[in-house]
Amino acid sequence: MKNISVGISGIGSYVPDRVLTNYNLAQMVETNNEWIVERTGIEQRRIADTNQTASDLATQAAIKALEDANTTPEEIDLIIVATATPDHTFPSTASLVQAKLNATKAAAFDMSVGCTGFVYGIATGANFISSGMYKKVLVIGSEVLSKIVNWEDRNTCVLFGDGAGAVVLEACEDGYGILSCELGSDGKEGNVLIVPAGGSKLPASEDTVKDKLHSIQMEGREVFKFAVRIMEKASLVAIEKANLELEDLDFLVPHQANIRIIDSALKKLKLSRDKACINLNKYGNMSSASIPVALDEAVKDGRVRKGDNLVLVAFGAGLTWGSLVIKWNKEGMDD
Ligand code: UT7
């Protein structure tokens, strides 16, 4: 980001109360706790109530982020919601959040970038501020994946969970905030992670419902190989663009899909596990919400301090990827 320095002035997250453990899942499909923990690192996940939507979770997270930033909803210029589980095809979930917050002057739109959405959202929101167009942008990752999971497919249903994380972006002290960004997409590989029906290609019909084409379909091994390669590559490019060396890194905030993918990235970046914000054991893969929830926890428990260099890195449907280097610009909880 070239012009005005942009940083995170407030952060918050929300996860639903209901816990679904691996043991619960073993009652539902042919699986077991050992397999899930060993192959993914996930122990449990949160599941939204039937009447809870992506905009509800997003609003809860946003309220906390606004409070942390000492900002009122009326001061927000733009709301970006990254989600793969919008309340509706339209209106956007961001517009619904705008109404729920009563953020009267905010523009609002959604981003459809799968699990990479929050990183794309920050990059987009930051540009509105660095260009001088807006002063305060709310970026939210919110997912109710439990509603688009095929609960009979053990290949996917054990992986995902519901939650939301939000940040307020504002101008910050020079030299701090977002130092670099790398975004990418390889649309040719889109079929390996897809919800086939419900859009203009396969509108909802009795057959699409019967064939469970409104649920997540994934070629796990293909996504895994892509993830391992791209997490390292995207992180290294962003670090180089920020004019930093590997030794300058303090924390990795990775997308939380599989502990083996995170471990592989850590090894390549020469970081130990305690230098990564990891919470997939508790929440599973919350897609666009996984990075902001993990970052919020690390900030709130005092691990992240002012001046720390963080790499946020994600991959997801598209296929897409994105990474950001952020020099943390807020005082830490213990500072
Ligand atoms: O956010 C982006 C979206 N997703 C991802 O990033 C996911 C990326 N991929 C992965 O994390 C891994 O590929 C998975 C966790 C999805 C699967 O792990 P894997 O080590 O690649 O397992 P696999 O698909 O190669 O399956 C190995 C075996 C198979 O049995 P056979 O064919 O060897 O007899 C599966 O049928 O494990 C079986 N299996 C299960 N067994 C018990 C698959 N799912 C389960 C399950 N419980 N839930």
Ordered list of secondary-structure elements with their pairings:
Blueprint: E1 6-14, E2 18-21, H1 22-26, H2 33-40, E3 44-47, H3 54-68, E4 78-82, H4 93-101, E5 107-111, H5 117-130, E6 137-144, H6 154-157, E7 162-171, E8 177-185, E9 193-194, H7 206-210, E10 217-218, H8 220-241, E11 251-254, H9 259-268, H10 280-283, H11 290-300, E12 309-316, E13 320-327
Parallel strand pairs: 4-5, 4-6, 11-12
Antiparallel strand pairs: 1-7, 2-3, 6-7, 8-13, 9-10, 12-13
Helix pairs in contact: 3-4, 8-9
The structure holds oxa(dethia)-CoA.
Oxa(dethia)-CoA binds at residues 31, 35-36, 39-40, 115, 154-155, 158, 193, 218, 220-221, 223-224, 227, 257-258, 285, 316.
Task: Please describe what this structure looks like.
- The protein is α/β, with parallel strands linked by helices and 335 residues long.
- The protein has 2 domains: 6-175, Thiolase/Chalcone synthase (Peroxisomal Thiolase, Chain A, domain 1), CATH 3.40.47; 178-327, Peroxisomal Thiolase, Chain A, domain 1.
- Helix content is 32%, strand content 23%.
- Strands 1-7-6-4-5 form a 5-stranded mixed β-sheet, with helices on both faces. A 4-stranded mixed β-sheet has the order 8-13-12-11, sandwiched between helices. Strands 2-3 form a two-stranded antiparallel ribbon.
- α8 packs parallel to α9.
- It is globular and about 55 Å long.
- The relative contact order is 0.19.
- Residues 31, 35-36, 39-40, 115, 154-155, 158, 193, 218, 220-221, 223-224, 227, 257-258, 285, 316 line the site of oxa(dethia)-CoA (UT7).
